[in-house]
Amino acid sequence: MAWDYIIVGGGSAGCVLANRLSADPGRRVLLLEAGGWDWSPVVRVPAGEVLAIMSPRYNWRYMAEPDPSRGGRADMWPAGRVLGGGSSINGMMYVRGNAGDYDHWARLGNEGWDYESVLPYFRRAERNENGGDAFRGGEGPLWVSNSRAPHPLTQVFIDAGVEVGIPANPDTNGAVQEGIGPVQATQRKGWRHSTARAYLASAARRRNLTVRTGAIATRLLFDGDRASGVAYVQGGRERREYCRGEVVLSAGAIASPKLLMLSGIGDGDALDALGIECRVDRPAVGGNLQEHPGVIMTMHVNVPTFNVEKTPLRALHHALAFLLAGHGPGTSSIGHAAAFVRIAEDADYPDIQISYSPITYDFGPNGLKLYERPAIGAAVNVCRPESRGRLSLRSADPMIAPRIEHALLGSAKDMRLMVEGCRLLRRIFEAPAFAAYRIDERSPGPAVQDDAGWEAYIRREAFLMYHPVGTCRMGSDPDAVVDPQLRVRGLKGIRVADASIMPTLPSANTNAPTIMIGEKAADMLLS
Fold first, then answer.
1. Residue 352: inside a domain
2. How many domains does the chain have?
3. 275 close to 377: Cβ distance less than 8 angstroms
């Protein structure tokens, strides 16, 4: 018995597809997810985000090769291993990006991906707490909410940004992105609202939708040049499922290209060297890997911040506030405010994002360690980095993690933007609005002043923003992995719909754009 659609990966886009494709009871849909359901408080409670990221139960925790641009440091690259994917373990910031990002995609030859064309899909997904308008959605399945963990210094940060010349912007997802303002989160009444909650929880009751968890896809099956099904391992046994319609890869920027390569779609020479029969010689599979480079600056302040709210009595107070009312630090997303600014003189739209938080911590050898003193922090990241990396197979064994190579600070232009973005953040911290609260700059500290000092600090401390994209690049050129309809070039019956298809990074956290891709892909499949 064949399925109409098989979706590989129940992540940010995969859950959207499972819901939309199964809305017609006449279509049989199978969703395969390597992880399990998202019932754990570690996933559902926003404050558990760091624990979820650190857990191999919910995160694949891929290890990259040493990065030559940062002294050989090797990073963990996250990928959700749970229904909801990245939307179940991310920092929950709802940021769409700039209209210019999508107009740029269209100029690269991706007809139908300009901002005017994708805006309806952003709106269709969203149920905004403040209601809908020409830019925001008010009736979609995904709840987007204002912060339920207000902290007085969040508004001070916004005021300080205005004092140094950044325009106030109450909605950076609205008509204009540029400016500084509050950030909303994918939460419902204080709880994380992943795509598993928003799209899948209700749809899973449909008789024509089957969700199989603990199912690790190992390769695609073919009948000639048409994808006919998926082989996967579940409970230690290899299984096969067949499809009379289309197979959709929504396994993310790491696993989707990996599965294509395991199935013989990739660089022919590299596949031959591993003993994998090459079906389509497409060297671009796994290439074009992009990530946002980020670095944090912190400042000690003289009012309590969330990192010091940890005495037993305060912890009990916050736990009750969360459980009874959905308020307090337990609901905190990773960012409470953000600034989108232009640094380069020739930038048409913002090239730096600064994300502010009233909680500060270090990652040590034993995990998360909260600052002992009250402090605030903000991350500076380049919106559209030039640096590119590559993902490749280590082995023909599907259980072996792929090789990830990326120089996060490999571009001199990216480094220049990071330095100037950090200088701007220091100006924000030193603005009059903070005068009554500022004690001192904790990191990098006043000793860092010249370009060499800033570059050394950034190379030592820079990190991934956990926004990998681009490894199954969409384009109209013959080297692209998928066409603008998301069909894998050279084959039939298979599409890719996740962050891997993005030709370039949007000027934003990538979860909202990935959900948009799921919505748009569903329309393509059903048209």
1. yes
2. 2
3. no
345 with 414, same domain: the answer is: yes
CA distance 441 to 230: 54
Alpha-carbon span 187 to 197, nearest angstrom: 10
pTM for the whole structure? 0.97
Q: For residue 224, what is the domain's CATH number?
A: 3.50.50.60
Classify residue 271: in a domain, yes or no. Answer: no
406-453 pLDDT tens trace = 999 999 999 999 999 999 999 999 999 999 999 999 999 999 999 999
367: part of which helix (H) or strand (E)? strand 367-370
pLDDT at position 316, please? 65
Q: Assess whether 102 and 171 both reside in one domain.
A: no
The answer to whether the Cα torsion of 288, 74, 194, 100 is positive or negative is negative
* 82 has binding-site annotation: yes
What pLDDT does 491 receive?
98
Known catalytic residue at 336: no
Q: How far, in Å, CA of 285 to CA of 291, rounded?
A: 17
Residue 270 lies in a domain: no
What was the pLDDT predicted at 366?
55
Q: Which of 151, 318, 336, 467 is catalytic?
A: 467
DSSP string of 334-360? S-SEEEEE--STT-SS--EEEEEES--
Residue type at position 336: H
Q: How far apart are CA 82 and CA 347, in angstroms?
A: 38
Domain that holds residue 224: 1-143+193-252+474-498+511-527
105 shares a domain with 236? yes
pLDDT beneath 70, residues of the chain? 1, 310-318, 324, 363-368
